[in-house]
Please model this.
Amino acid sequence: MKMYAFPSFALSILIVGIRAVSVNVTYCKGEEAVFSDVMSGYNKHVRPCSNAHDPIEISVIFSLMNINELDELTGKFSVIGFFYIAWSDPRIRWDPHNYDKVRNILLPQNLVWRPAIMLTNSFSRHHSLGNAEMVIHFSSNGHAAWNPGDVIETVCDVDVENFPFDVQTCKMTYVTWGYSVTQMSFKMLSDEINLKYFSPHGVWDILDTYAYSQSEYNLDYVHFVVRLRRRSIFFLVNMLLPVMMLGILNIFVFMIPVAHGDRIAYTLSVHLAIIVFLTLVSENLPQTSKPNISIICYLLLSNVFLSAFIIIFTIIGLRIHRKSSKDVPKCIKSLVCVFQRCGRHSEEGSEKNDVMWKDAGKCFDRLCIFLFVTAFTLTNASFLFKMSRSI
Model:
């Protein structure tokens, strides 16, 4: 009895396998029969329609996967995404009960009719959606579903005026190529882009998206719009804050005692540090002036000019401090007396005859500190406020 146990078990396994293979072969034969019948006499160059006077309704939704780049100089906006495009083809219908209950079939897109949809604002080349390797999913009721995906490169009008707080709006526009509005029209399945599969970008955040269709020049267009906001913290920490810190250090030159420090060497060192730093960070600045040059360029340039004026006023202050050959003019004595009476450490009852060039130099230093602190604060605050208006 034990000798026949293993052969009988193996025979059972073989019978089950043969049945499974036969069912699978039957199912594949059902798909082959559907393919042969629906493709018999099928003309892919003729649009599928029940009434020649009614346009074909093309349902569209776009899913954004990630952002490759947004080049400020060339205006190249590159993303990766895919579409869900659906329509009805009454010529590809069958009764599943006559084909082993086959309800769906995949057909190569180059064998059946598909909508000719082309990107109108392409950056490099114009081509229609899809390629020869893609397939279209057909249901037994004639419903067709197509999911073409690609790297999409479009032209985007970049405005870097408020860099690094800028907000950019980029658009992808598609048109029903070769078909008029009376032959084919778009139906939006959603008024925004699907971000379910989106991976966050390191430089850009998506503020919002929207999608809409539009008829113009007897053609139907569909627009997918993305509003992007730049992540500005990197540029604040590595560009603006160091320049502002150097600007503040430069103002402290007027607090260095004339007899115990070299003011000229100090202010020149800070000025050269600003120039060298701007040279290093210049590659991170937008290298375009269309439609407007970035405000941050004016901000950095204003700090360079303030540093240059500090050098000039430092030289003038040293001349005043070390001038002792002539008496102090009465107008300067009057100004010094006014500053001394307003100062915290001035002695009451000081007379104009006691004013010396050294006192005039100290008052000049206080005046310079007040002027340059005010100029530095107002200049940087106004530029930063203007740049951050887009946030």
